[in-house]
Amino acid sequence: MANDQKMIKAGDAMVKVLEAWDVDHLYGIPGGSINSTMDALLDEKSSIKYIQVRHEEVGAMAAAADAKLTGKIGVAFGSAGPGGTHLLNGLYDAREDHVPVLALVGQFGTSGMNMDTFQEMNENPIYADVAVYNVTVVTAESLPHIIDEAIRRAYAQHGVAVVQIPVDLPWQEIPAESWYASANSFQKPVYEHVDIEQAQEITDILTAAKRPLIYFGIGAKQAGAELAALAEKLKIPLMSTYPAKAILPDRQPYYLGSANRVAHKPANEALAQADVVLFVGSNYPFAEVSKAFKHVEKFLQIDIDPAKLGKRHYADVAMLADAKRALAKINELASEKAATPWWQANLANVANWNEYLVKLESKKDGPLQAYQAYAAINKITNADTIFSLDVGDVNQLANRHLILQPSNRHFTSNLFATMGVGIPGAIAAKLNYPERQVLSLSGDGGAAMVMQDLVTEVQYHLPIINVVFSNHQFGFIKDEQEDTNKGYLGVTFNDINFAKVAEAVGMKGFRVTEINQLADVFAKAKEIGQTEPVLVDVVITNERPIPVEAMVLDPRRYDAEAIEAFKKRYEAEDLQPFAKYLADYGVVIDNAEIEQGGF
Ligand SMILES: Cc1cc2nc3c(=O)[nH]c(=O)nc-3n(C[C@H](O)[C@H](O)[C@H](O)COP(=O)(O)OP(=O)(O)OC[C@H]3O[C@@H](n4cnc5c(N)ncnc54)[C@H](O)[C@@H]3O)c2cc1C
Ligand SMILES: Cc1ncc(C[n+]2csc(CCOP(=O)(O)OP(=O)(O)O)c2C)c(N)n1
Ligand SMILES: [Mg+2]
């Protein structure tokens, strides 16, 4: 009988759909247009945790970080108009790093829609570009169904789903049996196939190559052991994209690091000289613009996505396969090679570069530089620590100076590269992994964009160690202006004492200005960070980290005076050009263009 039909609020059904998909927390700020969703969250508060942030952007960035860290969908919401538009940076971050995020956006009630009512506008076009699924709900009964559809699409298409919800709908009652969640049906594709002929072809080309490199990206995340085994068997140095750092333990003797600017010297130098590149699980976005592969004689690619094969360079062999399975097969087919001059020259170059990094990190006197702070951070962290990195010099410096294991996690806004992700990412990390040590590392520009949410760490008792590097400038951009502009504009700024900011929101804050204070303060931060959030503001010099994309070391290309000035500025007296090691080991390069080198 119709009158006996059990009913449920559409909003409660919506939240139950989220729960069915294993969403256990979400971020946002209430508003008149989303208050019905708040009511539903109140009803379901025992199974889904609402995290109040102080800026919707932080909520969306944290949701993106949830997805990056766990592979599970992240959820954030904002109210109609400004609350929703504040989400955009986090949503674009998720889109560009291909992770599933659901955004719920408030809307004026259906009676006021399309009437130019307060904060009312056609919201759909705002999210059209960022989203793989983007709809406005028009009936209460369809609300749970649409949320289910949104989540399924976000997972399947590795992207952002946005649902705009008129505020009256979640409050309406719908039949309790009228909805279901499809979470139990969801599956991820499994890629088992490896083409044997292609695997053989790749093995043969790699074996015959004179100056081969394996260039892996985060698609090879599960394949660290296979990469190391192949490198050692065929004596092929490994390099990676920056986000693929720590797929192998850092400072492996044959790991050259990443290329371009957030990069390491050995990788840039070797890439410029390579004759064969195996590009695996990588979509290096600087490939075309930096002409990274222009001189390569054979380009071999392994990727799981057909849209990526041949994308960054013409591929002589393009294999559609999972990196781990493909590399395992190539390992099987390959026979052990003896060390080659190319291998030895690269190992010597890596050793020389690592000595340079250690020298900077171990300085005991002189002005405090970021390098010594990284050494102090390495001392108080462990193989389990999760590092949430902001955007700026922190990417360059963490890439070079954090010494990580595959069991560590480090992440940032890889491709959208939005500043401000450090603190939101750490909030997400601690919520997902309460037992693991979590650090956020930010520059003073990035931290200033989101510092209001330090109080969120306090409010939810999230023991995070926040590190801010204060150099009183947008350092990463200042260095660009040095290279491209006629002068500096907009790149320096006044000091913010972040230790005092921390104290103001109720967390312990320290300010470090000397090398000899580092050990003690970081030891205290480690201790405090076991139970409550803490912040260390490290006031560093405004020096430029060594530009590995523009090394002035090779006497065949630069005069003695220029080399001396470069070495002095970057404390690089002992740093050698790769050309020295190529010559030492008798690597002959018979191509004039390659001999010139790229970087
Ligand atoms: C300020 C800043 C500066 C930066 N500068 C640099 C820089 O100088 N150098 C640098 O390298 N990076 C830099 N980055 C990062 C850069 O923007 C890109 O995000 C990064 O290079 C892309 O890395 P990726 O190709 O490993 O990852 P993605 O772009 O995610 O590509 C991964 C690839 O792996 C494939 N894949 C996924 N799973 C599998 C699987 N199982 N098997 C096979 N293939 C798979 C995917 O289809 C995709 O093609 C910077 C980031 C920031 C924030
Ligand atoms: C939201 C946003 N605005 C601007 C930029 C351009 N940008 C990239 S890095 C950077 C400077 C970062 O400064 P800071 O956080 O102080 O770090 P530093 O490089 O000084 O260590 C800027 C302005 C950006 N990536 N994101
Ligand atoms: Mg700065």
Automatic annotation (TrEMBL):
Signal peptide residues on this chain, from the entry's feature table: none
UniProt superkingdom: Bacteria
Segments forming domain Thiamine pyrophosphate enzyme N-terminal TPP-binding: 9-123
GO molecular function, one term: thiamine pyrophosphate binding
Membrane-spanning residues: none
E.C. number: 1.2.3.3
InterPro entries in alphabetical order: DHS-like_NAD/FAD-binding_dom (IPR029035), POXB-like (IPR047211), Pyruvate_oxidase (IPR014092), THDP-binding (IPR029061), Thiamin_PyroP_enz_cen_dom (IPR012000), Thiamin_PyroP_enz_TPP-bd_dom (IPR012001), TPP-bd_CS (IPR000399), TPP_enzyme_TPP-bd (IPR011766)
Enzyme class: oxidoreductase
Pfam families linked: TPP_enzyme_C (PF02775), TPP_enzyme_M (PF00205), TPP_enzyme_N (PF02776)
The Thiamine pyrophosphate enzyme TPP-binding domain, residue ranges: 390-538
Residue ranges occupied by any Thiamine pyrophosphate enzyme central domain in the UniProt entry: 200-329
Annotated keywords: Pyruvate, Thiamine pyrophosphate
Family from the record: Belongs to the TPP enzyme family.
Protein name: Pyruvate oxidase
UniProt-listed NCBIfam families: pyruv_oxi_spxB (TIGR02720)
